[in-house]
């Protein structure tokens, strides 16, 4: 049975950084599920049809990391039929041996509720905005406004809203380095793997 690590949290909290490092450390597969929503939003047209016809090549577009792509993703992510169309892909990915790390918004709550490890990564709004602004070369105040809007949409939607699973361990990266965050995550996984 594959070992599944589910990582959720708001935008720019550091979950992708931790997810990649865990996958590397344990030799697991890694899926940034945000890319599925970003690619669906970027395809344009009917979002439900775009999600149903998504192929791996769509995830390789080089314009998916922009702030605009993030905003478009969070709008189409509120549509239940879009989410439903992306479930199979995520389940197939999570079923790969020897294990998989999936990061997103609803991995521990909806996609992989039986994951052996669930992490919920947070950081203060100001820290997240500063990190994202540095990453994209954008204005921190503008990033803060965009993150607020995206988080609100993600938390308030009816289907699969952003929230920690009841059995998730919280990691707050506001005042710790990337290395410290990764070390904390590995310690949590190692405790479960024994
Ligand atoms: N603990 C940390 N200390 C300092 N910088 C960090 C830390 N964790 C992540 N970062 C930086 O913050 C930025 C956002 O991190 P990351 O992409 O991992 O966030 P995310 O939660 O996956 O975001 P998104 O949901 O938008 O994909 C990156 O530039 C990353 O290098
Ligand atoms: N499991 C997920 C993953 C992402 N979303 C939506 O996509 C947007 C972009 O995600 P990033 O992780 O790349 O920032 C995000 O704001 C969510 O609206 C989702 O709903 N479920």
UniProtKB/TrEMBL annotation:
EC number: 2.7.4.25
GO cellular component: cytoplasm
UniProt-listed Pfam families: Cytidylate_kin
Gene Ontology molecular-function annotations: ATP binding; CMP kinase activity; dCMP kinase activity
Primary localization: cytoplasm
Keyword entries, A-Z: ATP-binding, Cytoplasm, Kinase, Nucleotide-binding, Transferase
Binding site for ATP: 9-17
Ranges for domain Cytidylate kinase: 5-40, 54-189
Name by which UniProt lists this protein: Cytidylate kinase
Recorded name of the encoding gene: cmk
């Amino acid at each position: 049975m594959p070992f599944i690590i589910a990582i959720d949290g708001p935008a720019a909290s550091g979950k992708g950084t931790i997810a990649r490092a865990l996958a590397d450390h344990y030799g697991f597969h890694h899926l940034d599920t945000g890319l599925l929503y970003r690619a669906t939003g970027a395809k344009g047209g009917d979002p439900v049809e775009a999600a149903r016809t998504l192929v791996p090549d769509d995830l390789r577009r080089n314009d998916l990391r922009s702030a605009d792509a993030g905003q478009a993703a969070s709008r189409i992510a509120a549509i239940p039929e879009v989410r439903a169309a992306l479930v199979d892909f995520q389940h197939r990915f999570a079923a790969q041996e020897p294990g998989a790390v999936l990061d997103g918004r609803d991995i521990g709550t909806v996609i992989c509720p039986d994951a052996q490890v669930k992490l919920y990564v947070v950081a203060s709004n100001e820290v997240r905005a500063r990190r994202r602004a540095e990453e994209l070369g954008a204005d921190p105040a503008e990033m803060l406004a965009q993150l607020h809007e995206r988080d609100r949409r993600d938390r308030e939607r009816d289907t699969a809203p952003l929230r920690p699973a009841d059995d998730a361990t919280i990691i707050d990266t506001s005042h710790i380095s990337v290395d410290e965050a990764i070390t904390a995550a590995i310690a949590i996984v190692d405790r479960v793997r024994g």
